[in-house]
Write a structure and sequence with these properties.
The complex is a heterodimer of chains A (about 120) and B (about 300). Chain A is α/β, with parallel strands linked by helices and about 120 residues long. Chain A has a single domain, classed as Udp-n-acetylmuramoylalanyl-d-glutamate--2,6- Diaminopimelate Ligase, Chain: A, domain 1 (3-Layer(aba) Sandwich). Chain A is built from 5 helices and 5 strands, in the order αββαβαβαβα. By secondary structure, chain B is α+β, with helices and mostly antiparallel strands. Chain B has 12 helices and 10 strands. In chain B, strands 5-6-7-8-10-9 form a 6-stranded antiparallel β-sheet, covered by helices on one side. Chain B has a two-stranded antiparallel ribbon with strand order 1-2. The longest helix of chain B has 21 residues. The radius of gyration of chain B is 27 Å and the shape is elongated. The chains are: A alpha/beta (about 120), B alpha+beta (about 300). At the A-B interface, helix 2, helix 3 and helix 4 of A face helix 8 and helix 9 of B. The complex binds adenosine-5'-diphosphate (ADP) and magnesium ion. Magnesium ion binds next to helix 9 of chain B.
């Protein structure tokens, strides 16, 4: 699916914009160590962490974008880091589980991601 | 639970970071008049009563007004002070002290350390000062870390990062900066990612576990990237145990920040082509890593590790 599809499905607010891209997978985690241990490719991170550290962690693992769940207030510093490293950032009011269910439904019915 | 920016801030700040430490006190034998004078001179509205280094009570401006009204201002503090004082501890989140202030409507909360010694006072003013200082610090700080770059005789490029102990705010900074540098030098993305992950884990270990910080040196050589991570304490007793996935000595506070899952060292090992880990209690810890520029598998991608439950 496209990043823009995910944003639309979650009714997420875009905090750092960028060109649209194809998402093959999602990694959902609040622990930074979990994010660092993922071996997924072409993926977007869903997390409840709003700190600049979380954004840097996403950059380190080469995530394509970050979506912050649970309608959390995102620190201005975090938005700055995302902008600095060119990583798209969005925030949704949905909780982690609801976000995953929504995206899972889309991901596994979308023809472009049969892997 | 949903947090606003300020709520996050007061949750992260500790009581000791927001308390006034130059606390003026009186002793119980002094008169209420003495307390009144001391309070006026120190421009405070309440004052802890201390005997033999132990806080035994508190007198406030209300007590003084009562005493003046009813004519016992010359009597000893001991007779009229409040003995049942609500106190807080230095390591509590500031938010906890703030909700007590809010609930009780007291103007101040004495801070007692583990031994019951008075080490400061939390007041609305001290909180405001701490918040402004912290906001200033956050705004002034940019995305630069203490990185130095030099070219070695061997033509290798050396990046050196100095990591401070306890500097959670900057966790991951060395990692993303090194990654950016690798990207600008055309290192392939899968390798960038492995180096960045290992650096991230190594750097958080220095922040969380080292006594006084440490150094990460990244040498970009023609055939490989070498990382050397060193600190000088506290060192590790049982390396085998430290390497176990899930083993961690991190505190709950550190876990609340999203670190300390005990996956760092196994994750570093998974990412590197060569891994050497040495430590001596009392002396320090050293990590030598090598990443080969040639891909180690057909795709060169990060390999899922057996020992690590991956997302
Ligand atoms: N540089 C270090 N100095 C002292 N102890 C360390 C250091 N690095 C790691 N350790 C010890 O090894 C344990 C495991 O480290 P790690 O696998 O990175 O997990 P975590 O950092 O999540 O605790 C740590 O909890 C700590 O006890
Ligand atoms: Mg660690």
């Amino acid at each position: 699916m496209l990043w823009s599809d995910a944003i639309k499905a979650l009714a997420a607010q875009t905090l750092v914009d960028g060109p649209d891209f194809e998402v093959k997978n999602f990694a959902a985690a609040d622990l930074l160590s979990d994010i660092l241990a993922t071996s997924k490719e072409d993926f977007v991170i869903l997390t409840g962490q709003t700190s600049p550290q979380a954004i840097r962690t996403a950059v380190a693992v080469g995530a394509l974008g970050v979506i912050i769940v649970r309608g959390k207030q995102v620190l201005p510093e975090s938005i700055n880091v995302a902008r600095n490293y060119g990583i798209p950032l969005a925030a949704t009011q949905l909780k982690m589980f609801e976000s995953c269910v929504t995206l899972g439904g889309l991901l596994w019915s979308s023809p472009s991601s049969k892997n | 639970m949903e947090f606003s920016f300020v709520e996050e801030l007061v949750h992260r700040l500790k009581v000791f970071q927001a308390m006034a430490t130059n606390v003026v006190t009186v002793s119980p034998e002094n008169s209420l008049r003495d307390a009144q004078i001391t309070m006026r001179e120190a421009r405070v509205s309440g004052i802890p009563v201390v005997k033999d280094n132990i806080m035994v009570g508190i007198v406030t401006i209300e007590d003084i007004i009562q005493a003046l009204d009813h004519g016992y201002i010359e009597e000893p503090i001991d007779r009229w002070m409040t003995r049942d004082v609500v106190t807080v501890e230095p390591n509590w989140p500031l938010s906890r002290a703030m909700s007590i202030l809010d609930r009780t409507r007291f103007g101040r909360l004495p801070v007692l350390d583990e031994d019951g010694r008075l080490c400061g006072v939390i007041t609305p003013e001290s909180i405001l000062r701490a918040l402004l200082t912290e906001l200033n610090r956050l705004l002034a700080r940019d995305e630069k870390s203490e990185v130095t770059i030099e070219t070695l005789e061997s033509e290798a490029l050396r990046l050196r990062f100095e990591i401070e102990a306890g500097d959670y705010d900057r966790a991951g900074l060395a990692s993303v900066q090194l990654k950016r540098e690798l990207a600008s030098r055309g290192v392939e993305p899968a390798l960038q990612r492995r180096v960045a992950i290992a650096t991230h884990e190594a750097e958080t270990n220095l922040i969380i576990h080292s006594t006084s910080g440490g150094t990460i040196i990244a040498d970009l050589e023609p055939e490989s990237i070498r990382l050397t991570v060193t600190d000088d304490g506290p060192g590790i007793d049982d390396i085998e145990q430290a390497m176990q996935p899930g083993y961690s000595t991190a505190s709950d506070f550190i876990r609340s920040l999203g670190f300390g899952a005990g996956m760092g060292l196994p994750n570093i090992k998974r990412c590197a082509d060569h891994f050497e880990f040495k430590s001596k209690p009392g002396l320090g810890t050293r990590l030598n890593l090598r990443f080969d520029l040639k891909p180690r598998s057909a795709t060169g991608q990060v390999q899922p590790a057996d020992a690590i439950p991956s997302l």
